[in-house]
Amino acid sequence: MQEDRENDSPKTIRSVVRALSVLNVIGGDSKGISAISKELQLSKGTVFDLIKTLEFMRYVAQDPKDGSYRVGPALLKLAVRRFSENDLVEIARPYVQELADDLGEIVHLGQREGMFAAFLDRAVSRKVTRMLDLNSQVGALSPLHCTSMGKIFLTYMSDAEVLQFLDQQALQAYTEKTITDRRELQEERRRIRQRGYALNIGEFEEGVSSLAVPIRNARGEVIAGLNTAVPSVRMPKESIPGIFAKLKNAAQQIEKELGA
């Protein structure tokens, strides 16, 4: 019984235990006051007070169609935060390493850090020794407008965020191929959305190419990116579809682990 569980420890606070019990009950399916009351063996008045408090804090929400209650936006937001950088790295690492082995190249896991892209993890192939020696240490920052990882984040930022970026950051030319025109950059964002991946062909460093794909959470938001960087001679145009397919597959596996 609920009463027995509440008395298991003298340090428990009854109202907190009951409120969490309500959340546990509606965590799977939406339920009404009567169903919650019956399952927890609490009076309807007690359940009503608990529900209204949780609703006020947005931890539960009422379905306007049938009056039942379900998990609210505040609780969902906490669940999303559960996957911190460390969690993401831990979940993604085996897939990042497997991808590096499969491609025979360096693979990076990254996240947006303000107006830059940051490397969260890095894997090198255990099977091939011909990989590009990049200065891409974990924690390193790279620009958004001329790296494949950065372009992924720039593409899926809101229009308002992109305008803020353009107002605050100069589109610095790192090579002759760097995009430095605002209109051209917006067109590049459109192309990336259309094809599903971002390319950097010598735009940040001469002779170096990279390809990146997004990693999304359960709400479809881009929370990270996955890329590989290679000497441009090892990424001819005809190899791009195959590289994209492998990156996309790895990203989808990570997304499944994240509950997407």
UniProtKB/TrEMBL annotation:
Signal peptide: none annotated. It holds the Pfam family IclR_C. SMART domains: HTH_ICLR. Keywords: DNA-binding, Transcription, Transcription regulation. Residues 74-260 form the IclR-ED domain. The keyword Metal-binding does not apply. Residues 13-73 form the HTH iclR-type domain. GO terms for biological process: negative regulation of DNA-templated transcription. It comes from the Bacteria. GO terms for molecular function: DNA binding; DNA-binding transcription factor activity. This is IclR family transcriptional regulator. The lineage of its organism: Bacteria, Pseudomonadati, Pseudomonadota, Betaproteobacteria, Burkholderiales.
